[in-house]
Amino acid sequence: MTKTAAVSGLAHVVTDRLHFETQGNADMVNLTADVRRLVKATGLQAGTVTVFFPGATGAVTTLEFEPGVVQDFRSLFDRIISPAEHYEHNVTHPDLNGHAHVRAGLLGPSLVFPFEDGELCLGRWQEICFVCFDNRPRQRTVVVQTLGVG
Amino acid sequence: MTKTAAVSGLAHVVTDRLHFETQGNADMVNLTADVRRLVKATGLQAGTVTVFFPGATGAVTTLEFEPGVVQDFRSLFDRIISPAEHYEHNVTHPDLNGHAHVRAGLLGPSLVFPFEDGELCLGRWQEICFVCFDNRPRQRTVVVQTLGVG
Amino acid sequence: MTKTAAVSGLAHVVTDRLHFETQGNADMVNLTADVRRLVKATGLQAGTVTVFFPGATGAVTTLEFEPGVVQDFRSLFDRIISPAEHYEHNVTHPDLNGHAHVRAGLLGPSLVFPFEDGELCLGRWQEICFVCFDNRPRQRTVVVQTLGVG
Questions:
Q1: Which of A72, B46, B143, C4 has the fewest beta carbons under 10 Å from its own?
Q2: Chain B positions in Cβ-Cβ contact with residue C66 (cut-off 8 Å)
Q3: Which residues sit opposite C149 in a β-bridge?
Q4: Average pLDDT of chain A, as a whole number
Q5: Which residue in C5, C106, C108 is closest to B15 by CB distance?
Q6: Looking at the whole model, is its pTM more than 0.95?
């Protein structure tokens, strides 16, 4: 059932950050090439990379990043967490992004990917996506932390 | 685009547990201060902390922990996974918490946060929340495992 | 509030793969026994195990794996991400599995579990589940990567 590969040594932790602009309203940014490049640049052989968004109105997931799936994924959030619903957050906060907070909490800020032989374990059509749920353009930062052995 | 910080050394794994009471019905508990304190107490410089709920009727996420967002997040689950729906679980289990199981499975039991210079990477308004989906008060335990280099 | 256990040493990364068949349409496979066995086989004392699906039409979660909950969890996706909705993906892709992509993106491809004293930290009724959202039988691979100290 399984094939095992084991690597041992000192632990190395390399913490990187990606900075980019988003347009809001479930704008999605494909981070795959950047994450792959950062993992390679560490020179580490095996371990995990944590892709983490430090914020309350964005989230991280994986998708086949083709325009149809991107639009279908946005439509899901428009259906189940519509900006047209009532949000208590909006009663006390003039930014009117209550739906963005709920969407981000449901999808989650963090994903962990294993890598092996210096290569990210990803499916052929699977891309790492940041989703900006806020209702306006933002400057965003995502933490990419590689932890493994060399 | 990125700024890199690297730390190497022996690996350290510190496993802690938080114990607390919950009221059920999507009661939320803010774990941020406890997780931050536990990471600091390890004395480690960089790595990841895994916040994991060992159970089938609770989950972990991040939210801006203000009363409006907390209520909006609860409303989401009342809309899409209402206790008023039919649940097969409830046919054979007298605890009648079928909705709690489905909610917990959707949100997920585990999140991973990077830390750097001994400090948790969190957004300014982003808090680590445990959500108790069960339909009654419970004693809960959450595992907080810090893995990194010193 | 907390009890601490600490282990230090060289870092070990053991990367395994599980191969299995799925029936599609939210078919669920219980991976718990396999993951537990793989963690034990590493001989490591403490750390994390990452369960990761390298693909765009499946996901990983935890559930009480009894037939009622399994059916209730499937019903959730039939309600909120029904195959009967319109999917842009299906306009350009003849596989007609747009709903599978959206479901997988919502649930997520990856979960991290801590282990301690060589034992996975899981709740008594909590099982690690792979969910195949595709609309046909598939051969699936899941990466199980154990990272810790011995």
A1: C4
A2: 89, 92-93
A3: C46
A4: 96
A5: C5
A6: yes
**Mean pLDDT, contiguous 10-residue spans, chain C (150 residues):** 80 98 96 98 98 98 98 98 97 96 98 97 98 97 97
Residues in B closer than 8 angstroms to A42, CB to CB, are 6
Which amino acid would we find at residue B105? G
**C121 and C5 in contact (C-beta within 8 Å)?**
no
Distance CA A110, CA A94 (A): 27
User: Per-residue pLDDT averaged across A48-59, rounded?
Assistant: 98
Q: In terms of CA atoms, which chain C residue is nearest residue A71?
A: C88
Report the residue from B14, B18, B50 with minimal CB separation from C1: B18
What is the complex's ipTM, to 2 decimals?
Answer: 0.96
SS3 track for chain A: CCCCEEEEECEEEEEEEEEEEECCCCEEEECHHHHHHHHHHHCCCEEEEEEECCCCCEEEEEECCCHHHHHHHHHHHHHHCCCCCCCHHHHHCCCCCHHHHHHHHHHCCEEEEEEECCEECCCCCCEEEEEECCCCCEEEEEEEEEEEEC
- From chain C, the residues in CB contact with B34 under 8 A are 1-2
Phi and psi torsions of C89, nearest 5°? -55, -40
